Every structure is written in structure tokens, then in C-alpha cells.
Amino acid sequence: MQEHLKTNILNFKWPSSTPVIYLSLEDIEGSHPIHRSKFSKQVKEAFPDTDLSSLEHIFTTFTQEIPNAPSIKINLIKDKELRIYKQFLKHQLKTYFLEKGYIVVKNFVRDVQVWMPSKKGNTADYNLYYKFSFKILFATLTDLPELVVSYDGTSKVLTKSVNDIEETEYIKRCVYGQKTFNYQMNLDTEEKEEFYNAIQFEQAYPIFNLSLARALDIPIEEPIRPINKYQKYVALINNFATNYLFAEDFKAIFPFKTDAFIDVPLNRINHIDPQVGLLEFGKDQYGNKKTHLVPKLAMNNLNPYKRPNNQNIKFFFVYHTSHKEAIKTFYNNLKTGVTADKKYFKGIEAYVNIKASTSKEHFIEFANENNPIPEITEQLENLSFDQENVSYAAFYLSPFDKFTPNPEDRNIYIQIKELFLNEGIVTQVVDYEKMVVNIENQYNFQFSLQNMALAIHAKLGGAPWKLAVTDKKELVIGVGAFTNQGENRRYIASAFSFQNNGLFRKFEYFDQNETDLLAGSICKAIRDFTSVAEADKVVIHFYKEMSYEELKPIIRGMHTLGLKIPLYILNINKTEAEDIIAYDLNWNKKLMPVSGTYIRISENQFLLFNNARYPNSQRYADTDGYPFPIKIKVSSPDEDAFEDADVVLELLTQVYQFSRLYWKSLRQQNVPITIKYPEMVAQIAPRFNNGVPDDAKDALWFL
């Protein structure tokens, strides 16, 4: 079936006459700052007696005339003045919705975001708002100006004001009138202090967060995630556009070419051959290589590519006293399978092709579920392990899930993971409550056990599958990040030497400010790799756009090593919100484009769809998910890096391939493991008390 790709972009017309804006050196009432980066030649000529080079800003009232003030007619051909025009349009956009009475804020990339009150989902404790963002582009996907309309999810605003809340330490952001503010803001400027002192607490309403909800005894409902995110997203932006954007007064600001989201231009669409994502599994008994595209299907019939090196594997359990009886049922299901027909899971030994048994003498039982570490530590110190001959894996039955109110309870599994990792033992956490529910629903439980078996296999050093197509000699380095919201601190981690077959080598992790250490470790990985093999290229997958300060020591290091191989940087971002997406109208209303579809949205910037929908596939299971595309920006410090027209396709293909090597779940991921694995390390490792042991930095214990 021929695809029909649409996007969340509305085309609007260039103005018939360009606006005249008024300028001032002073910050007068009703004016807006124009940053020095937008000072065009025409702007500078408007102030012939002033040297603007020493100023950070000048000011404008846009089209509101200022008596005796200079003005310019914006030249839409000039980049700097086009940016002023964008600022003018954003001001009009914000003003339009403020005058309609809606909450208007800036999202995290500083685009205009509008909060629309919901008619459903409100409770006595909070009111629900749907959030939509706008991004203004000029001739990016088309030859016209473009208004990108994004759905950013929802927020709940409490009906109880700050004035009526005692537990103010749990308050984060608040709605105040038609804007929001951070209640816990640092009062480090006169402007912030003045604003804080003027707040009327009875008119400030906190935005729902879990800690505040628990403190106020507001019922916390586990979010209901849509089966297909595309359907919800597209329905919401279409309804929003129809009801609010295609109104005549809005179109006076943005005169749309048509009242409809545009098709993706055909010359911007291309496809990666799905066969490059072919995966190699274990050979059959006759020595024949076995391959497959879909791990979920392959693992039912094929063996993993490589077993863990140790032939002797033993499992033991760490559990609360009250869970002792449940272990027997769980282990029986893990060992022999779940459903009567054992169609999808015949037991861990058959599923991942290993031999394993329990080590009952190592079972650890604790009584204090809120502070089990002293008990576990004491028992662990009295146990001996035959680690020269045996690989051990500990199953920790956790009494707490990720929604547990107390963060200390949620953090116990991290402490246990570190405790056993220091002993050279990998762990697998099992949510006890979820396990009990799953045991009662055996059909679903078998899929949880599949994922658990897969992760244990990889943690013990096995390789469930690898890339079948491995014709390049490339060093791929991934750098991911995780932000600890409680600490408001970001940690980064790097996963080194994903070879062309996709097999992982080693990782390190750092604080976000340790740029030189990150660069040094990247250079070491390059040196280690090139000392044993000649690389065609070095590719760095980075979780954000790499700054020159981050890149400079890497380039310097490569020069020191005398390496003349090309270096490519791929900035890889999720597109869950505030961005361009695309959807396919010709796929049974399910909307997700075929896997491997990529769209050039600007020079060397692309949307790539990574999913399990392949061309000509007749059926698609909802359980395979409907991931949004990822956005990839390709760059290089080398002048001639893109002379070969095929290099971009090669780099995108590599991302596509590496998204198929995730060993924690059988579900296809949209983000490659070069970003995903480091993000997982950055989430866990900084919370260890003594860091990660050196001998664990080449293992996948974090899965």
C-alpha cells in the first residue's frame, strides 16, 4: 500500500507587506528586548550616533509606534531580521491566546505553549489542562512559513491554593493568573525578589506533582497510556486546529494556505532497507547461520547468538519473610514455563539456551522491608561463592514498586544492586505485587518472563543476537544522560566501542560538567580501537547537540594520535513533544509510518522511524508499540566529511541497526542502544555509594 505521510505543520503565507517595527535604546513600557545577535545592518543604521556593539539588547514595541523613535521595515531576506519577524509572530501568538483568557507559557525550548482547559478528567482536587506548543519555521519543509503545532501532554492544576497548603516544601510550579512560576525559585535577583513579594498566595495554584499529592492525600492514579500514541496525538492536534486555529481572527495573524496540516513533500521522504536490520542468532545443529528481523518471533524458535561463557549458572533469591512461599511458584514458572501449551515461554533454560539451577544455600531472607540492607549485608558476609567455576544471579523480590511514595524505599533496589555487584554478582529485580498479579494472569506473565530471561542472559555475559550485516570497520561511541529531578542534576554516561556488529565493550560515567574527562575517555576508546584495527570512521552518538567546547578536546586528541579518519557527530533526540512528527494516513488508521522511513526536515537533520512495522506485513500487534520517530542531526568538524553522498544514509542506517540491539525487552526501541544504555547507566551508577567496580564496566548489569 502506498504511504501517505502528513505532518503537524500548517503553511501560512508570507506577508503582502512586511511590517514596520519601532526601536528604542531604552526599556520603555510595553517594549520587548532584541538580542545583539539580531542586530542587522539596518538595525545598526537606525542608531547612527550609537555604537551598538557594547549593548546586549535594544528594545522594540513591534508595530506600536513610538513618537520620535527610529523604525525599520523588516527585510525578510536577511536572516537576522527574519529572526526579529519570528519574535514578532511569537508575540502576536502569545497575545492572541492571553486575550482569549488562556494560560500561556514557554516550554523548555522557549516556544509558546498554550494550556487549554479540559471538559473531562477534572476532580475535586484538580483541573486538567491539555498543552499545545507552537514552533515557527521559515521554508524548512516547504517554501512557505510554517507553524508547527505539537501536543505536549497534560497538566493538573490543584483547586487548593498555596495559601491553604501547609506542606509548601512539596510545591514546585504554580499557576498564577495566566502564567506559571517556580515556587522554589532562587531569589537571587532583584526582579525575582520583587515578583515573589508581590504574589498573592490565595491566587496561586500548585501544579500536581507526586510528592505534593501524597502530602495532601490526593488519590494517585497510575496513568492510562494510550495503546497507539499517534491516534491520540493526531486527534488532539486536529481538534485543536479546527476549533481554535482555523478561526478567522487567528488566521488574520497566520493566513494559512489551506486549513489543513500539510503532506510531507515526496522529495523529502526516503527509506532504509529493512534487511540491514537483519539479526543473527545461534546456528542450528547443522552449523547453519540463522537470521531474523523480529526478535520477539525469533526467540520462540531460534537459539541466542552466544551463551554466557560460564557453563555453570546458579540463581538464588533475596526476599522478605512474607514472600517466602511466592518464590516457589515464581521459580517454577521461570524454570518450566507458564501456560499449559508453553507456546511462548518453555522456561528460561529452553528460551535462552542455558543450563541453570538454584543455589539454595545462598537464599537471603530479611524481616525489615524498609531497611533490609543491614540484614542482607550481614548474611552476605557469611556466605561463600565459588566464582571461579560458577556465575551467580540474584533475584530480588522487591516489596516496593516505582510508584512507592517514599523515595528511600524506591532506592533500596539500587543499594542491593551495588551490594551484590561489589561481590561480582548480577541482580534481577522482581516487583512482588506485579508478579502476584501476573501469576494470576498467566498469559501476560509469560511475556514478562521472556524479558526477564533475556536480560539475565545478557547480564551474565551472553549475547542474545547481533547484527547480521557487518561490513564496516567503525568505532561507535554513545553518550547518554539522565537528569535526577530530586537533585536537579544531570549525569552523563558513555558506552564505548560498539563495533560494527553492535556488541558492547565498555562504559564510563561522569557529572555533566566533567567535559574534559568525557573527552579523555572518548580519545582513549579511539586509541584502543585503532591500535588493533583500522577504522573507516569514528561516530559519536550524542544525547544533545554537541557544543564546540565538548568537541574541541576530542579533535585535539585525534590530532595527537595522528588519526586522519573522519569524525561524525550524531545528535539523537526523542520527539515525544515540541517537535515535528509525521503520520501515515494509509495504514488502517493506525498512522505510524513504516520502520526505516526517514524524512529530511532541514539540511543534515532528519526524522527516523524505528519500529516493528515492516513493508508488506499483513498484521501488527499492538503489544509491539507505536514509538514516535527520533530526530537526528548529523555534523562533522571535517570539511569534506559529506562529499560522499551516501555517508548520511550510512550514518542513519547505523542508528537504525543499533536500535535493534536492546536486550532488556523484546519490544522494538526507537532510540539506539548507543543512547539508551548510557542513559540507564547514568540513572543508576551515580546513586551507588562507592561507584561501579572497574571489573563491572564491561558488563550489562544495568539492564
UniProtKB/TrEMBL annotation:
SMART domains: Piwi (SM00950)
Pfam families referenced in this protein's UniProt entry, alphabetically: Piwi (PF02171)
Source superkingdom: Bacteria
GO-annotated molecular function: nucleic acid binding
InterPro entries membership: Piwi (IPR003165), RNaseH-like_sf (IPR012337), RNaseH_sf (IPR036397)
Domain Piwi: from-to ranges: 392-690
Family to which this protein belongs: Belongs to the argonaute family. Long pAgo subfamily.
Protein name as annotated: Protein argonaute
Classification lineage: Bacteria, Pseudomonadati, Bacteroidota, Flavobacteriia, Flavobacteriales
